[in-house]
Amino acid sequence: MKTKFGILGCGGIAHRFAAALRLSESGELYAAAARDEARAREFIGRFGGQKAYGSYLDLILDPEVEIVYISLVHSMHYEAAKLCVEHGKPVICEKPFFISEKEAIALTELAHKKGVLVMEAMWTRCLPAFRKAKAWAQSGAIGEIKLIDAAFCFNFPYDPHHRLFNPETAGGALLDAGVYPYEFITGILGEAPSEIKAVARSTPNGVDEAVVMALRFESGALASAVTSVGVKASETAHIYGTKGSITVHRFLRSRKCELLNGDDEVIDSFTDDQEEGFVYEIEHVVDLYRRGETESSLIPLRDSVDFARAADIIRAQCGLM
After folding, report:
1. What are phi and psi for residue 123, nearest 5 degrees?
2. What gap in Å lies between CA 146 and CA 217, rounded to an integer?
3. ∠268-271-277 over CA atoms, to 5°?
4. Which neighbouring-strand residues pair with 196?
5. pLDDT at residue 209 in the model
6. Alpha helices, H only, 34-178
7. What is the secondary structure of 186-253 as a DSSP string?
8. What SS3 string covers 84-121?
9. What is the mean pLDDT of the chain?
């Protein structure tokens, strides 16, 4: 029997998640909810689910729904996740899970109190290529890690009415895209930064169009996390150590990583054939659910809380909305 998912929100990322469910060996689409029930019915018709709702609460209360996937705009994540947890429903929420540290702490404490499985949908942490790169890094294969760089940038035409640039929907590069390089870096190192310095460029309506983050860690590592929604840049990430380096090709959706020695010679490599990386996070959250776990070791809640804290710091430093 496959585990039944209910999806809140029927936008673009929900379409991708539902398509990935079709490839999953352990999960399946059961229900979808949208403010417009007709949109939910269309979504279910397209992806093969059974129930369509015009109310998020009605989906959460459906006893057949075993895990809720939240794909709503950023500003709605907290309230939707809180509703799930209050009703004892396991939840996987799109990144960034939270838009402030206050939200993050409140929801995390509630989840721990209720004993409910809660996980940020940071699918890149579940990719075999990421896990291989992390294993190399933590094994000492490149010596002491000194420097990491990662960037996720894309070019989207400025439109103050689009959710990406709308302050009311928590738009901006930092939350929408910056969470990826930041959590790539903290995931590889297994620690939160002790110091954050950032600069930003804003759009005419005051939303961040680009952010450059400099991070310092207690381990001694330094890192650069770059994000922009106004220009496209390379997604290849690098991890540099005293004895070599690791290259993670297209880290956001990586299917390949390479281990290099001190002379920049490739001494080991890893390649994954799975084209749809969302499948890995689906299999992971289902495994957690079936084992009765309440938190992921790959995407621990402390890391989601840490990014929320970092976002607060960065917005304050850069005078962002």
Report:
1. -60, -25
2. 10
3. 140
4. 215
5. 97
6. 37-47, 56-61, 77-86, 101-114, 128-139, 173
7. HHHHTS--SEEEEEEEE-TTS-EEEEEEEEE-TTS-EEEEEEESBS-----EEEEESSEEEEEETGGG
8. HHHCCCCEEECCCCCCCHHHHHHHHHHHHHHCCCEEEC
9. 97
Contact between 54 and 74 (Cβ < 8 Å): no
Pull the structure tokens for residue 161: 């009415």
Q: CA distances (Å), 94 to each of 13, 180, 197, 237, 273, in order?
A: 9, 12, 26, 22, 24
- Identity of residue 130: F
Contacts of 33 (CB under 8 A, 6+ apart): 6, 7, 8, 9, 40, 52, 53, 54, 55, 56, 58, 59
Of 196, 254, 246, residue with least CA distance to 225: 196
DSSP 8-state symbol, 278: H
Q: In this predicted model, what pLDDT tens digit does every residue of 109-124 receive, in sequence order?
A: 999 999 999 999 999 9
Residues β-bridged to residue 271: 256
- Side chain identity at 139, as an amino acid letter? S
* pLDDT classification of 283: cutoffs 50, 70, 90: very high
List the beta bridge partners of residue 230: 155
Indicate whether 321 pLDDT > 80: no
The answer to whether 65 and 44 are in contact (CB under 8 A) is no
Can you give the pLDDT at residue 80? 98
Question: In this structure, what are the phi and psi dihedrals at residue 103, rounded to the nearest 5 degrees?
Answer: -60, -45
Task: List the end-to-end C-alpha distance of the chain, in Å, as a whole number.
Answer: 46
